[in-house]
Amino acid sequence: MSYRSFTAKELLTLAGRHTEVVTREVNGGILIFIQQGARLLGMYPQSEGDNTLWLNMDLETNLAQHHTLVGGNRLWIAPEKNFFYENPRDFEGYHVPAEIDPGQYTTVDVGENIIFENTFSLLEYDNNQLFDNSVERRSFASIPDPYDTQLPYIGVAIDDSIAIYDLDIKMCASSITSLYANGNGSSGTVLIPCKPESELIGYHAPIPSELSEITKGIARLKVDGEQLCKISLKPEYINFDNPCKGLYLSPTPSNPELWSCVIARSDDLPRDQESCVDKPKRNPQGPKGVILALNSDLGYNESGFIQFGEMELQFNCGTKVDNKTVSRAHHELLSYTGSKEAMLELAKIALQTDITPELY
Question: What is the SS3 assignment for the chain?
Fold first, then answer.
């Protein structure tokens, strides 16, 4: 079974039955946002082409049930250990609090910037402490191609923030982008620019050599949705002179000869271990990373074909502002389509390398 991308028209109709939908059409492409979960659901460099973000094929049911497994790009909070595990010591009892995602977002503005806001209560399981009147806010605006490629392109600047009314809590906002795996033996590749001496952290378990490695200053992860693997990169290994923090290359779902490239850019990431908050499940006392990539192993279930991957950027640790702790970040998500050769050339530019990246 292969993954099938929703057309923009299908997505607008389907999502519109369950939540408010906002669009931006730019130079032949289209961005699709929804109020539920404040998600960016669609990035179409060509409005009649494929969505370059993964969406659950059972999207209709999941939106109707306010389920978290929707796809697209979402705002998250770290550390997961404190807020998502009922037994944080042993990383047991994982669930996504509905107050956080999808939350109860309202639409603040649909002018030049599209702004959604959610007020929620947050339970920190470590200390069994409840934080009321917490606020998460997302602001989106379409942006021109920073690489001036002349390729089919759509891009968005995102300003995310999470505010918790407590001065001692240690947390950060993060952005997670869902990536499709096409099935039928096809795979995509996450590429992360890093320093030559870099080492990857296995978040759940040791990293299988057939799924991930670092070669010539580029970390890579295979995305095929067949075997769980989550990698992360310490801030000490990040090249902060390069705004690109990760990208994803894959054939498009409808045409294996046409490829897509999704690029995540930001400078608002921690610079050292003290500023990192997300402890890896495999070794909670070990080093922490802030650029993460996931290959899922969910495969097939009652929801159908849900093979996918993720890119995640964890942003600066919250700082004290008046009587609350606030984590905020500016980041960009860029999406392109073209031939495999054109996408590899774009990847070289974004990764700031003369070497053509190796793909899985």
Answer: CECCCCCHHHHHHHHHCCCCEEEEEECCEEEEEECHHHEEEEEECCCCCCCCCCECCCHHHHHHCCCCCCECEEEEEECHHHHCEEEHHHCEEECCCCCCCCCCCEEEEECCCEEEEEEEEEEECCCCEEEEEEEEEEEEEECCCCCCCCCCEEEEEEEEEEEECCCCCCCEEEEEEEEECCECCECEEEEEECCCCCCEEECCCCCCCCCEEEECCEEEEEECCCCCEEEEECHHHCCCCCCEEEEEEEECCCCCCCEEEEEEEECCCCCCHHHCCCCCCCCCCCCCCCEEEEECCCCEECCEECCEEEEEEECCCCEEECCEEEEEEEEEEEEEEECHHHHHHHHHHHHCCCCCCCCC
| Cβ atoms within 10 Å of 49's Cβ, excluding its own | 21
Per-residue tokens: 195: 């320093």
pTM above 0.85, yes or no: yes
Q: Which domains does the chain have, with CATH numbers?
A: 8-351 (2.70.98.10)
Peptide bond into 79 cis (omega under 30): yes
Q: What is the pLDDT of residues 12-43, one digit of tens each?
A: 999 999 999 999 999 999 999 999 999 999 99
Task: Report whether 309 contacts 296 (CB < 8 A).
Answer: yes
Report pLDDT digits (tens) over 74-90: 999 999 999 999 999 99
Amino acid (1-letter code) at residue 97: P
Q: Which two tokens stand for residue 252?
A: 């498009």
Bond prior to 102 in cis (omega within 30° of 0): yes
Q: How far is CA 194 from the centre of its chain?
A: 19
d(CA 286, CA 280): 8
CB neighbours of residue 33 within 10 Å: 25
pLDDT at 299 over 60: no
**Cα distance between residue 140 and residue 40, in whole Å:** 9
Q: What's the pLDDT at 256?
A: 87
